[in-house]
Amino acid sequence: MDHPQTPRILAPHLSNFQHRIVRMLGKVVQLRGETAVIDAGGQVDVILSRDSHLTVGHAVEIIGKVDGNLAVKVQAATDFGTNIDFNAANAVVEATHRYKDIFYDEN
Amino acid sequence: MELEAGAEMNYNNYETSYTSYGAGGGAAGGGFIPGEGSQQSPGGRREYTQDSLRPVTIKQILEAQSEAGGNDAFKIDGAVISQIRNISTQTTNITYRLDDGTGSIEVKQWLDSDTVDQTNPTKAKLVEGAYCRAWGKLKSFNDRRSVSAQIIRPVEDMNEVSYHLLEATAMHLHFTRGAPGSAQAGTATTNGSAGQQQAAGGGNYGGYDLAGYTPVAKRVFQYLREAPQSNEGLNQHEIAAKLGIDTADIARAGDDLLAGGLIYTTVDDQTWAILEAD
């Protein structure tokens, strides 16, 4: 019922969000069975869940927890197709951190 | 500039105009959709003439303050884009739990008995996990907030998510800092996009993120950090003299740093100190 806030981040932000649940939009670069690599302002290792279906070359939005190795353990993944403007998406991430009042609480 | 690009996207004919942004709400109520008007609360007719909708995040909805005196009038009504987490269908309404990453809220769409039987193709796409755009009024009942939606439709082009969040940010800045064109808001937006290109090349500013600031702003910040000073900080003329930069440029750099929350004014508007992060 309760859904925690999921700040939108890119690869360079990972270290500031360790052990938090985040939301990342990136392009799937590589699938390796139970893990995958996405490009979200830099390469990010993603640990897949059983029901996450990623497609190489597609954009994917991942909600997951950042672990101590800066990998993201997926809780939910949504396919965003192949028509995503990553410049706009990355500008969103920048805006969310610059004007956090309307996006997320620090903790 | 991303916003301009976004605005050209053609969302299907549900698009509502966000006309009267002004707090006073002009005579022509902004976002209320004619033809969907059969949704007055049972308690009686309410005046909708002051309504206007603006794009918001759910966090803004959850933190919106109710207007003094108004029983259930909020300062924010709006449009949100978010992911559907849960759907519960009742006889009189469908309740969607929406989550946009900034928070989650229940959105109720009251069913019109005339339309119940129609098989609505957009409804079929409103499934758990899908993104939707919802327009509606903010309600509060027993301290529980919800949105009573006039329209909920599925999002088909995922770029609309970015578009909405940037638009919500632009509106937020419009209300908190004034319209673009007034100097501060203008530079803040420009710096935002410049930040994209410069993000990689940030210098060492002791944990502060100065990506996106002008070189002058970076020098001013660095100088404020390093120069000996009292707790009143330093005057812009002193900084200008020390750095050998025109005072007007220093003032502009200061405005940017103030807008970004990196410095604050002390004894007067021209005297600044570093805002220590906690």
TrEMBL record, chain A:
Coiled-coil ranges per the record?
Answer: none
Q: Where in the cell is it found?
A: Nucleus
- Origin, by domain of life? Eukaryota
Q: Mind naming one GO cellular-component term on file for this protein?
A: site of double-strand break
- Whether Nucleus counts among this entry's keywords is yes
Determine if Nucleus is one of this entry's keywords. yes
Q: Which GO terms describe its molecular function?
A: damaged DNA binding; single-stranded DNA binding
Q: Which Pfam families match?
A: Rep_fac-A_3
Question: Family per UniProt?
Answer: Belongs to the replication factor A protein 3 family.
Specify the protein name: Replication factor A protein 3
Species this chain originates from: Clathrospora elynae
UniProtKB/TrEMBL annotation, chain B:
Q: Which PANTHER family match?
A: REPLICATION PROTEIN A-RELATED (PTHR13989), REPLICATION PROTEIN A2 (PTHR13989:SF16)
- SUPFAM superfamilies in the cross-refs: Nucleic acid-binding proteins, Winged helix' DNA-binding domain
Q: What is this protein called?
A: Replication protein A, subunit RPA32
Q: Tell me the compartments it is located in.
A: Nucleus
- Where the record annotates domain OB, the positions are 84-154
InterPro entries, from UniProt?
A: NA-bd_OB-fold, NA-bd_OB_tRNA, RFA2-like, Rfa2/RPA32, RPA_C, WH-like_DNA-bd_sf, WH_DNA-bd_sf
Q: Does the keyword Repressor apply?
A: no
Report the domain of life of the source organism.
Answer: Eukaryota
For this record, the Gene Ontology CC terms, alphabetical, are: chromosome, telomeric region; DNA replication factor A complex; site of double-strand break
Question: Which ranges carry the Replication protein A C-terminal domain?
Answer: 172-270
Gene Ontology terms: biological process: DNA replication; double-strand break repair via homologous recombination; nucleotide-excision repair
Any GO MF annotation of the entry: single-stranded DNA binding
Stated family = Belongs to the replication factor A protein 2 family.
Gene3D superfamilies under this entry? Nucleic acid-binding proteins, Winged helix-like DNA-binding domain superfamily/Winged helix DNA-binding domain
Going by the UniProt record, its keywords in alphabetical order are: DNA replication, DNA-binding, Nucleus
Identify the main location. Answer: nucleus
One Pfam family named in its UniProt record = tRNA_anti-codon
